[in-house]
Write a structure and sequence with these properties.
This protein is of the alpha/beta class. It folds into four domains: 159 residues, MoaB/Mog-like domain (Molybdenum Cofactor Biosythetic Enzyme, Chain A, 3-Layer(aba) Sandwich); 47 residues, Molybdopterin biosynthesis moea protein, domain 2 (Alpha-Beta Complex); 90 residues, Molybdopterin biosynthesis moeA protein, domain 3; 74 residues, Beta-clip, CATH 2.40.340.10. 17% of the residues lie in helices and 30% in strands. The protein has seven helices and 26 strands. Strands 7-4-6-5-9-8 form a six-stranded mixed beta sheet, with no helix packed on it. Strands 16-13-17-21-20-18 form a six-stranded mixed beta sheet, with helices on both faces. It has a five-stranded mixed barrel with strand order 22-24-23-25-26. The protein is elongated, with a radius of gyration of 31 Å. It starts with 9 loop residues before the first helix and ends with a strand.
């Protein structure tokens, strides 16, 4: 007879992640690094950005002190000694007292130039003389060399996923290739004699596999590479063979269904039967998701997830996603937005377990916080998943929440 769960807390479950390490690095062109995490230390600039001081306006490059005190009634008269176009060297000019250079946006400032007068506040008297009607301060309408990043300054901190703007900065600094952590490859297996593929006609007692598609999308959303291995009937030897094969090609394996203690739930036996594997946890004190399993094989992780897709999603967000982020080089957290809400009604719970309640959010007039209303439904129903905006968290030592109580919600991505 199979043993019952030995429930552990979610915090203890998270501590098991210390057994795993980020995946090895690979070198990619910078444009292909979106969503990746650089490996090694923080990134530093190998040169200044911008590499030269430049104008942010069309107008006249000047020495700011030559404009002090000028006005529309008493303009400053400056001698024009040349013109600087975008892409041309501005340092071929050196400003002396009473001189200016016509400059365009993005143009390099001349030597001794420390400000730009906008063209709107100037008037050309002739080709060699300009009237300035408004004074400028040093640094006005310019970006100084290195003002964005000085050489050897930090561009990005450690353990941060690269965004489009990050890639642009790296390109501006001349970085063309980057060492990043490899994306985790995740194998997905659905188990159960009752399951058929989505493209198969229904037969008595059969249901279409929902979990493979859902989990594959969740893996992609979390930055991983999913690989579905189809449906495996409740046959221990076949499940073991498919899992062994999948583990040779993936960093993580997700088995949905069969993680409970029923007569034909083989996932525990599979995890214990994999060569070189170690069972780390069977059961966690949360609802839904109590029968969650975790095993390791070297630096590879194997999860046994509940068969109900709603429960499997909760476990994915709470545990699978954080471990995927660790593999990717990030901190091992869920990475979901966390907001404060008010409960729209009383929400019951039981002391001794953490509860994650699907909720919908509404913004009521004059309310300081969004109002969260539970989306109830039996564990096997699917429509609550569509209606939910996130998960409301009830701590393990809390006996429900009253209407109007303040609570924490993890928003779905």
């Amino acid at each position: 007879m199979k043993g019952f769960f030995q429930l552990i807390s979610s915090s203890r479950f998270y501590r098991l992640f210390s057994r795993f390490s980020p995946l090895p690095e690979e070198v990619l062109p910078v444009p292909d690094c979106l969503g990746r995490v650089p490996s090694g230390d923080k990134l530093t600039a190998e040169e200044r950005l911008p590499p030269f001081s430049r104008s942010t306006m069309d107008g006249f490059a000047v020495r700011a002190r030559d404009t002090f005190g000028c006005s529309e009634s008493e303009p400053a008269l400056l001698e024009i000694i040349g013109e600087i176009n975008m892409g041309s060297a501005g340092t071929k000019f050196t400003l002396k007292t009473g001189q200016a250079v016509h400059i365009w946006t993005g143009g390099e400032l001349p030597h001794k130039g420390d400000a730009v007068v906008m063209v709107e506040y100037s008037h050309l008297m002739d080709r060699q003389t300009v009237e300035i009607f408004r004074p400028v301060a040093p640094g006005e309408n310019i970006i100084r060399a290195g003002e964005d990043f000085e050489k050897n300054s930090t561009i990005l901190p450690e353990k941060r996923m690269l965004r489009p703007q990050d890639l642009g900065v790296l390109a501006g600094l001349g970085t063309t290739r980057l060492n990043v952590h490899r994306r985790p490859r995740v194998g997905i297996i659905s188990t159960g004699d009752e399951l058929i593929a989505p493209d198969q006609p229904l037969a008595p007692g059969k249901i279409r596999d929902i979990n493979s598609t859902t989990l594959a999308a969740l893996v992609t959303e979390a930055g991983g590479i999913p690989k579905c291995y189809g449906i495996i009937e409740d046959n221990l030897d076949k499940m073991l063979a498919v899992c062994e094969e999948a583990l040779t090609k993936n960093d993580m394996l997700l088995l949905s269904g069969g993680s409970s203690v029923g007569r034909r739930d083989f996932t525990l036996q599979v995890l214990e039967g994999l060569k070189g594997s170690e069972l780390l946890a069977h059961g966690v004190a949360i609802r839904p998701g109590k029968p969650t399993l975790l095993a390791s094989k070297g630096n590879k992780a194997i999860f046994g997830l509940p068969g109900h897709v709603a429960s499997a999603m909760v476990v994915f967000y709470l545990f699978v996603r954080p471990l995927m982020r660790l593999f990717s080089g990030l901190a091992p957290d869920h990475g979901l937005q966390n907001i404060q809400v008010r409960c729209g009604e009383q929400i019951p719970s039981v002391i001794g377990r953490e509860e994650y309640v699907r909720i919908s959010l509404a913004r009521k007039p004059a309310a300081e916080l969004p109002v969260a209303t539970p989306v109830y439904g039996k564990s096997g129903l699917l429509h609550p998943l569509i209606a939910a905006d996130g998960l409301l968290v009830i701590g393990r030592d809390v006996e429900g929440l009253d209407a109007g109580a303040r609570a924490e919600v993890l928003l779905f991505p």
